[in-house]
Amino acid sequence: MPAANLLRGKTALITGGTTGIGRAIALEYLRQGSNVVVNHLGLERDQHHLFSLVAEAESLKTSNTDPNVTIGTLDHLAGDISNPATGPALVAYAVSKFGRLDICVSNAGICQFAQFFSITGDLWSRTVRTNLDGAFYVIQAAARQMASQDPLPTSSSSWREPQRGAIIGLSSISALVGGGLQAHYTPTKAGVLSLMQSCAVALGHYGIRCNALLPGTIRTQLNDEDLADDQKRTYMEGRIPLGRTGDPRDMVGPAVFLASEELSGYVTGSQLLVDGGLFVNLQ
Known about the structure:
alpha/beta, quinone binding, Short-chain dehydrogenase, NAD(P)-bd_dom_sf, NADP, oxidoreductase
């Protein structure tokens, strides 16, 4: 786990933040001192995820006994990121609650495996609207806010120019390889990677860093059913040099690194692959 309070005083927005990778990142950002607004769909069937996240965030505060460690505050707002109005609404809400926005993690996405010939127009458009269009709307709104605000003050001994924000787009190893059951999904993740590269160029002179995180096979609610097949899971683990599928907690260190000006202040336009070595062992 990263050292505490690397993100103290910052505000982060995380889409898809109540489950899986987004949830793990949200909790670690709170531990690092950042206030966090998570976005979720607000569906009744998913309320238990939100309630348990809120409870865990409160537990972090009440269990903290170190006066030198600040635990951030969690808030949340429902909304479908495929709606162009949701991104600006999320950013406005975060600013109304915490006064500014310093970190945006575009994490929300869907992945429904399908044979190529069975991919319908509806499945294609839903996947693109959520994974790529939604990422663009949220990132654009976040960048507008970051560009308009003053950077947080840095220590007097810092030799870096102050920065206005960090944006992280959750891409995937699927951006780099094909998938026979993912012909509608892999293009969206390649699109997120390309979007972050272009944003790095477009937003660098505003002091906004933009990077992509590329998870490998991480066990989340999106692939639990697929990995429940013992034969398939064993095959997959045999191809991963570290010998196991990933856990959402494997993503938190890289997410803190990319969000922290202290750790990655000269990192932008990069792609950080977190896959246990799977990509280099694809043969």
